[in-house]
Every structure is written in structure tokens, then in C-alpha cells.
Amino acid sequence: MAPTVNGFPPAWPNGTSCGSEDPIFVWEYAEDTYILRQSLCTSFEGPFLYLLFGDDKVLLEDTGDGGIPLQATVQGIIDDWLVRHGKSSIELVVVHSHSHGDHVAGDPQFQGQPSTTVVGTNLGNVESFFGIGDWPDQEVTYDLGGRILDVIAIPGHQTTHLALYDRRHELLLSGDTLYPGRLYVQDFSAYAASVDRLATFVDAGNAVTWVLGGHIEMTTTPGQDFPFGEDVHPNEHVLQLSVDQLFELDAAAQAMVGSPSYEEHDDFIIYPL
Predict the structure, then answer these.
(1) Which of 6, 29, 126, 180 sees the fewest Cβ atoms within 10 Å?
(2) How many Cα atoms are found within 13 Å in the side-chain-facing hemisphere of 213?
(3) Which domain holds residue 32?
(4) What is the dihedral of CA 228, 234, 240, 245, to 10 degrees?
(5) Residue 1 predicted with pLDDT over 80
(6) What CATH number does the domain containing 204 carry?
């Protein structure tokens, strides 16, 4: 039986109370799943990080933009989980949605720590760790111990970009490929193929309750984003998107293959570079 899901907070700390905001906000989505947000008071990127517990391993996706006590915070969550589950230790695996600086800057805090593996950020490291032999077309799985994650290559925003699908809670972690914000695209042909790969994955019967990305840059006004570099986000869009937004993005991306262009949607903005 899946653990109870608590859902999402009414709002995420949004940079409007820097005198009292913690550098890392920790939210228990479920007893085995945590969402962390780096405070906008420490980085205008305000990246989201994900901590997923299995029976044998706990996976941290992304390490943020630096300058925050991430390892200590994560270790505190792990220590509490171990006590609740009567365990003495668990292996921590640190992976990345992709290798841009605002998603990997905290890596040095974890390197050399006991019972911790930090996966390298180049393509060879990613392929070797997950056992991907045919990038980007081969989908593989990663077992945390009673909790299976599907690993899907989705280059386009960045060469080594991955999506993770959590079968237990039906969560699709989409990194910077889809989130409520500006979807920067470096390689549009690869990006369109990646988004279509995600849509095909869902169409194949993999139910998705929520699509969870790496940032929030949209306001609650449809089609309106915060200015680049803005570190105060009043009236911020929710983090969670649905498969409807994924299919909307897929249709738009396929329509502009060969002639990509800036395009505003209610919940995201396509932004070819």
C-alpha cells in the first residue's frame, strides 16, 4: 500500500519575507517523498529538489544553486526517516536532472560523505551509472528498494537532461524541460523529440498524477512570467502541472519543429535560444 500523500503547501516561500525565510524550505509530500526549495532570498533561481526514499536507497535529485546548508538539511531528513523506520543507515544517491550550475552547485557538500554516491554530470557518467546503452532512446529503471523509478533521457534544454518517473506516487520529475516558467531550449530538434518521448510514455499507460519541474517563473496571471532575475515572487504559480500541460507542450513543440519561436502559453513559455 502506498504511503499517505500530504499534497502541496498552500504556497511556497516566495522571497517576500527574507528576514524570516529559511534558506531551504522542506515539504513532506508523503512519508517517503520530500520536496525542497532553495529560498529565492539566496538565489533568484529558487530551484526545487526532490528526495525519494526506498527501502535500500534514498535518491536526491539536484543540489541547487549553492550557498545553502543542503547536506546538513538532507542528512537531518534522512536521520528522522531512519528513526521512524527502525533502520541504522541507508545509501544516499545524488543524481541530477541536468548539469546546469543551479542544479549541481551543492554537489561538493556530498562528495566524500559516508554512504553517499554522487553521480557525475557528464553524459558518460550518466549513461554508465544508469546503464543506458542507447542514449537518448533507451528507457531504463532504477530500483531504490521496493520503489522503482523509470529513467527517461530528455536532452534539448541541456545534453544530459533526464526525467524520472516515480511509479509509487505517479510523479513525473521533468526538471527544466517542463515547469511553470520559461522553457529555455538549446537544441530544439532534440527537445521536441524529448517532449514527445514523455508524451508517448504517458500514452503507453504510465499514469501521471503530477508533473513536477525545477523552478517556478510564472505568476498566477495566465501567460505572465516574472522578469528574469526577479527574486521576489508574489502571486506565484503553483509548482505542480498536469499531463494536460505536457500534451499541450508536445503539440506546440511538434508544430514548430524546423522553425522554433518564442510562444506564450497560460502555464509556460517556450523560449528557443
Answers:
(1) 6
(2) 26
(3) 24-272
(4) -60
(5) no
(6) 3.60.15.10
